[in-house]
Design a protein that fits this description.
heterodimer; A: alpha+beta; 6 helices; 25% helix; B: alpha+beta; five-stranded mixed β-sheet
Chain lengths: 210, 533
């Protein structure tokens, strides 16, 4: 089984760990994954269902050491982070503010930085999290790994909705999506066309951060 | 069980909770590098209240005394949704210039805002002392207010005559802080405005009720109310005439008809937003009420001018049906799911039971709970039936099955299955309901939690839209109606010839008619009439 089909919510770090790799790079940088890297803009964390990821053979390394002695082997493992910028309903960054990240039943106290960002290393298998800003009465349920690529409609919807422009959930909600695109274009001084063109997509990537 | 629905359509205007969309988790990407996610809450409206055009003087921002009912409903809504900030939006029709309409709609929004925060100086400084076009408060407004607060000034004609001065004198005499000089000067006007505002805006018990400036979405932080109140001018009509109608209305002799037909477009809406949010007025897209519509245009849909245009369509367009009549995209986002803008579809049910001598008794003043939908999060509406045993249920598009739980204590029912079919009649017009005691409007605050003993209530399943029109072929539409009226057993769709005849006979018996079991036109009409649809 050299290829694995991607399911919703999966990303390379998670799969690499499941397949026994300590770093996602060992999978992602495989020459056989070149076309997927190109397709997904070299972002191993934003894949799309049915994408195919090549899984290489696990390398066998032999280290020699004398018996009856202690040896220390250091693995260079990759880390995975959750990075989120929080803003208020009118777009003001929520700076230097205490919040709580609920992760695998753990309550992790965090403070946003001067740009409103929280950053936290997370286990590669974590899918569900909750971010709470107690003093602003805000609570967000997060699905880690579920953001779709920016050139897919679901990825467009997801980013716009996360940015506060409700873009609808389903294919039928075309007006709602158009509404969100136009509001976004308007607020970012782009020509308001309702069309998700290259300039709009580039701006969305810049503003959203992924 | 989901949250409680709020709906008050008694009397005039409407106050309603908005159907809330299900909140879903936010999809985010993890990072192995510099990329990040940005999360900003959506600006969500949770409720609305409407002050219709005829609660203002024509072409004026003077609020009429009868608007008290609209304010009472709004206050019920505000109390039912504590911590939810407000913003006021005025709307005009498209008669006249954009700039004029923008200003008048802004002045009406300001007039409502001033009542809510109880600031008579806003009325005095920005409206009374600053006439704009046809909107001149003048002596006529003084007469209206004096009359409403119990000092009748004679005919309301805008003339400062002896009768009016007598009324002013009486008002001044009754208020210690005023000099009795028979002249409605600034101090007297201020007092009069205040007393009138207290009369207009009360809670369910008739006590004056005010809202704080900080209860609005921009917290009163802009001296000219940016964010807290604004006029949308003629940019967001709910009704657009066809080209043909428009041509007719352009004729001089049809001016009154045009004004009448345009009334739904002239309205003031107060929206409530999700609890706890507020905005920086500089980041709020709407211009101030006193500013022109240039900033509004920046927020137009890319086809915004087409949306409000009457030049294209050959048929009348209504927002409720087409959802494409608002030019302003920002406003569209706030109002799209609002029962106050898309005239609410209602299910009107009349509940009755068998009484002595074959009479039917209205189940009046009965407590009910309606669960709209079948999911665990389906919202619940609670209330009491009116004098005629009528209850009104707002119908949201996606809901087809509802459960009605009714307090039938004191009555015995035979056991049978209770699937009822109904049509979604869009009533909405509650004219003539005002004087009916026991209507929803007078009771304070709709109950939020379950009724006491609700688990004992009799349960009915209602299927929206499954009632066949009487014009449908065959006996089926009448079988459904007979069944809803309590005749026959089991699913009327499965009734055979004999079962149908038995149900018709039961109906005839109850009405003292010959029990033929036939269904001639007279009987059909009678069934339809009693069923109400």
């Amino acid at each position: 089984m050299p290829y694995r089909k991607i399911n919703q919510g999966e990303h390379v770090s998670r799969i690499a760990k499941e397949e026994g790799f300590d770093s996602y790079q060992k999978v992602w940088q495989e020459p056989d994954n070149q076309s997927l890297r190109d397709l997904r803009r070299d972002n191993p964390n934003v894949l799309f269902p049915d994408d195919r990821l090549f899984i290489p053979e696990r390398e066998q390394r032999t280290e020699s050491g004398e018996t009856e002695q202690r040896h220390r082997f250091r693995l260079k493992a990759s880390t995975l982070k959750l990075r989120v910028v929080l803003r208020t309903v009118d777009g003001t960054p929520i700076c230097d503010t205490d919040c709580v990240l609920l992760l695998n039943l753990e309550r992790i106290p965090l403070t946003t930085d001067a740009d409103g960002m929280i950053e936290r290393e997370i286990p590669k298998s974590t899918e569900d999290a909750k971010l709470i800003v107690p003093e602003m009465d805000l609570e967000f349920d997060l699905k880690i790994g579920h953001l779709d690529p920016i050139d897919e409609v679901s990825g467009e919807r997801g980013r716009l909705s996360n940015l506060g422009y409700f873009a609808g959930y389903s294919r039928e909600e075309e007006t709602q999506l158009r509404w969100a695109v136009e509001e976004f274009q308007c607020e970012h001084k782009l020509p308001v066309t309702g069309q998700y063109d290259d300039a709009t997509q580039a701006k969305l990537e810049e503003v959203y951060g992924t | 069980m989901g949250e409680s629905l709020f709906l008050d359509i008694s009397g005039d205007g409407i106050a309603a909770g908005h159907p809330q969309r299900v909140s879903r988790p936010k999809p985010v990407a993890p990072s192995t590098g510099e990329e990040f996610n940005t999360i900003q809450p959506q600006l969500i409206t949770v409720g609305c209240a409407q002050v219709p055009d005829h609660q203002f003087e024509f072409d004026s921002s003077v609020i009429m005394p009868s608007a008290d009912k609209c304010f009472r409903k709004l206050i019920r809504l505000v109390k039912a949704k504590p911590g939810c900030p407000l913003s006021v939006f005025g709307h005009a029709d498209s008669v006249g210039r954009d700039a004029y309409n923008k200003r008048l709609s802004g002045r009406r929004a300001l007039a409502v805002y001033a009542v809510l925060i109880r600031d008579p100086d806003l009325w005095e400084d920005k409206l009374y002392k600053k006439p704009a076009g046809g909107d001149r408060w003048g002596t006529r407004s003084i007469q209206i207010f004096l009359n409403a607060v119990g000092y009748p000034p004679g005919p309301i004609n805008g003339e400062m005559n002896k009768e009016t001065r007598d009324a002013v004198e009486a008002f001044q005499s009754a208020h210690d802080d005023l000099t009795v000089d028979r002249d409605p000067g600034p101090k007297t006007r201020r007092r009069l405005f205040e007393v009138y505002m207290d009369m207009l805006c009360t809670d369910g018990r008739g006590q004056p009720y005010k809202v704080e400036k900080t209860d609005f979405i921009a917290r009163g932080s802009d001296p000219d109310g940016k964010g807290d109140y604004q006029g949308c001018g003629e940019f967001n009509p709910v009704l657009l005439f066809s080209q043909q109608e428009q041509d007719e209305f352009e004729k001089e002799e049809n001016q009154d008809a045009r004004n009448e037909a345009n009334a739904p477009n002239r309205r003031v809406l107060v929206y409530l937003f999700k609890k706890g949010i507020h905005v920086d007025p500089d980041r709020w897209p709407c211009p101030r009420a006193k500013e022109d519509g240039q900033r509004c245009r920046e927020r137009f849909w890319s086809d915004g001018e087409t949306r409000r245009s009457t030049l294209l369509p050959d048929a009348r367009r209504e927002f409720e049906d087409t959802e494409d009549t608002f030019s302003c995209r920002f406003y569209h986002g706030l109002a799209a799911y609002s029962p106050c803008e898309a005239a609410l579809k209602l299910w009107v049910l009349r509940l009755q039971v068998d009484g002595p001598e074959g009479k039917r008794i209205a189940l009046a003043g009965r407590r009910f709970a309606v669960i709209a939908g079948t999911t665990a999060t389906a919202p619940t509406l609670r209330g009491t039936t009116d004098d005629r045993g009528i209850l009104r249920i707002p119908v949201y598009d996606e809901v087809v099955t509802m459960t009605l739980k009714l307090d039938v204590s004191g009555y015995l029912f035979d056991q049978k299955d209770d699937d009822q079919s109904g049509d979604d009649s869009s009533d909405g017009d509650a004219a003539g309901e005002e004087s009916q005691p026991g209507g929803g409007g007078e009771t304070d605050a709709a109950p939020e939690g379950a009724w006491e003993g609700e688990e004992q209530f009799r349960q009915f399943t209602l299927k929206c839209g499954s009632l066949l029109p009487v014009t449908a072929p065959g006996y089926d539409p009448f079988k459904q109606r007979l069944y809803n009226l309590g005749h026959g057993k089991g699913d009327p769709g499965t009734w055979n010839h004999e079962a149908t005849r038995a149900a018709i006979k039961a109906f005839q018996r109850r009405h003292g008619l010959e029990e033929t079991g036939d269904l001639p036109h007279e009987i059909r009409d009678k069934i339809q009439q009693e069923h109400g649809s």
